Amino acid sequence: MDSAPLAPARLLADLETPALLLDDARLQANLARMAQRMAALGVRLRPHVKTAKCLAVAQATDAANVAAGVPGAGECGPITVSTLREADQFAAAGWRDITYAVGLTPNKFAHLRRLLDAGVALTVILDSADAARALSAASAGWPTPVAVLIEIDTDGQRAGLRPDAPALLDVAAALTGPGVRLAGVLTHCGGAYHAHGADGLRALAEQERSGAVRAAERLRAAGFAAPVVSVGSTPTALFAEHLAGVTEVRAGVYVFMDLMMAALGVCRFDEIAASVLTSVIGHQPDRGWTLIDAGWMALSRDRGLAGEFTDQGLGLVCNAAGRPIGEGGAQGGGEWIVSAANQEHGIVTHRSGDPARRLDLPVGTLLRVLPNHACATAAQHPHYDRLGADGRVSGRWARFIGW
Amino acid sequence: MDSAPLAPARLLADLETPALLLDDARLQANLARMAQRMAALGVRLRPHVKTAKCLAVAQATDAANVAAGVPGAGECGPITVSTLREADQFAAAGWRDITYAVGLTPNKFAHLRRLLDAGVALTVILDSADAARALSAASAGWPTPVAVLIEIDTDGQRAGLRPDAPALLDVAAALTGPGVRLAGVLTHCGGAYHAHGADGLRALAEQERSGAVRAAERLRAAGFAAPVVSVGSTPTALFAEHLAGVTEVRAGVYVFMDLMMAALGVCRFDEIAASVLTSVIGHQPDRGWTLIDAGWMALSRDRGLAGEFTDQGLGLVCNAAGRPIGEGGAQGGGEWIVSAANQEHGIVTHRSGDPARRLDLPVGTLLRVLPNHACATAAQHPHYDRLGADGRVSGRWARFIGW
Lengths: 403, 403
What we know:
By secondary structure, the first copy, chain A, is α/β, with parallel strands linked by helices. Chain A is 28% helix and 22% strand. In chain A, helix 1 (24-41) crosses helix 2 and helix 5 (129-138) runs parallel beside helix 6 (167-174).
């Protein structure tokens, strides 16, 4: 009595809403764009699978990287994960070169060991001598060493040591014993999500690159091995002018793109591959409201860059073909947004908030909502319904959740 | 190579973080409190399973309702669902009396039929003559009729017709044919989430009750059958002084409670049963930041009632025993909040934002974060780790996602 199996090549009108759509052609174009950029820069790409959490998307990514000639690309190529659940899932499906890019805690050490024992070439990150000592002690008896990158903070946004921090050498020195192997440095310049314009993005990309390289050079000058210099985010990867000294780039959201990337000028609205299919379920004409069956459960509550760029509410409303409805504001892209939501109800209003304007469509009308943040919206869904160029749904790809 | 199975009676320190904890004793107390209130008011309780999405929590709820003598309670008692996936899961496990409390769309009609064919006594809601006509037409050939409640808007917050709306009788009249049966009215006064103080909550509860009863009386006066008057939310259920004319109450979040309910005065902090166990993964001393391994993926991005009551960030930080750390502000309850988050990183700061104050705890220290909105936080997790009175984890309950 579960949902009926999805027959091939169904119409959108045959889906139950809400549903997470993944546009095949846009996905392929996004994968090719990044792969071609990395091939041109001559740098290895280690895609971050946290965005899609989907084996099939990772397979498509590998294929695009091979096709473009990205250095080191191949079947089951290198990946970045945000959870050890992702590492488990990908390792079980054949991926072997996995970097877990969140600071470690001792309660994950046994899980790291299980991954190593299963044949995974595992890289982890940390940014303190305490963490380095704890991992060194715990791993002393492990049969295979775990590679360690020291996390570098190149934007003041999150974790890591500043490139010039004296503690950098202390952390390196605290990695001792047969179970750990210092491999280099890693940074993520999330500050690029707040850059205005292409010049700003290029500057942040250079800040990320130069900071990571500087940290690696300090380690090498002090006699430590630091072969790996790992940088990346979707905006910096696509806007970096050169990546001298960088050995690999990590990026995640580029596979889908989203309204944040559009706000930054990294993509166009019509390059966003993930959207939520929803239906009109009612109206409150006095308030200018159109109610839809996509609430925060289907959209997430991510507000994207609402405080810094155009406020897209909880998502930008498109017609069933995926085109934003209306003329839009300064950045173009439509007049209607999901301005509020309950768990399974979204409230669509005009961008202006004017209650005299209402999206007056019959109950049952299909709409699509573009996500502020594709990682967050996709995380609410158990699968992707794949949308083909013919406007039909060609199949379903599973995704997973949890840690 | 998946996560190792959880042995019974493990210590919190043996869990991998982040993890969603469910405090058994608090859950039981919350279930008993609502059950006793409903028994005292003499009204049937139809718990909303959207909060927990967990068969075991629903079983515990049924048991509490039976123990308190709630009218109509029993094994696999009446439930409310927010998705047809919930209906599927509960029907497969034996629940039969199910109300789907989100406005209908035609793309769900085939699914409704499957549920009816499986023996579910199904109730749905709608608030327009268009939807009533569409369902009447689609259901004409169904062997079992579906019960229909007309949704009433008693607070101007979401869907439904005003109790005095002329269209109410049009909707009732549009329900025709053998496949549909008008059963009454349903309302949810979400406005109670913005009430200040017990008097405000009592007033909203009365507004919800009287509006729903008024709508049902109008239907009856016009010759329509309207035996069911369904109302509810956790705050109105617990603060209603009487429920004359109401036949059933729906409530969901009471099973766990959360910071929103605490802000409204509906519960105390130490009655919140769900929390996210997390570990310190690092520090940025210059900024007063403590980094934890619970980001928005583990906490959700729900900001709760930050604009109206004390801002709890993305959650209130407690020690591993679940007690808020520090003295707290005007409403009490701790000095430390998760003030920002990335996907798998949370940033804990002092409530004041003062960078000179920092929660200086070693990497690996366990903390617990109380959720702004338990429905949203629980939705990010695949299971609950059950926390016993001895401080040990006694087992794991699965939850499900999707539509």
